[in-house]
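Troubleshooting log. The previous structure file for this entry was overwritten by mistake, so regenerating from the original sequence record. Sequence copied from the archived sheet and checked twice against the printout by T.R.
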Amino acid sequence: MMLLDRIALLVTVIGAINWGSIGIFAFDLVAWIGGGQDALLSRIIYTVVGIAGLWCISLLFRERDDMRLREN
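Regenerated output below.
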């Protein structure tokens, strides 16, 4: 797995944890860190998480290099 794939997956998991905290505790960690949902820092974090999530969609459609090497 490429380094960018791992970073995107990690950021997506962190975003999922934030969504879980919103759903369970009604606490938005990103808004708390960034100074509110409309603050520039929060919007940047939300955008990075969104882009990472879109990148992770590509992981679903790629062949795994490990499996290909084992077949040969």
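Residues 3-65 form one domain. Archived copy saved in two places this time.
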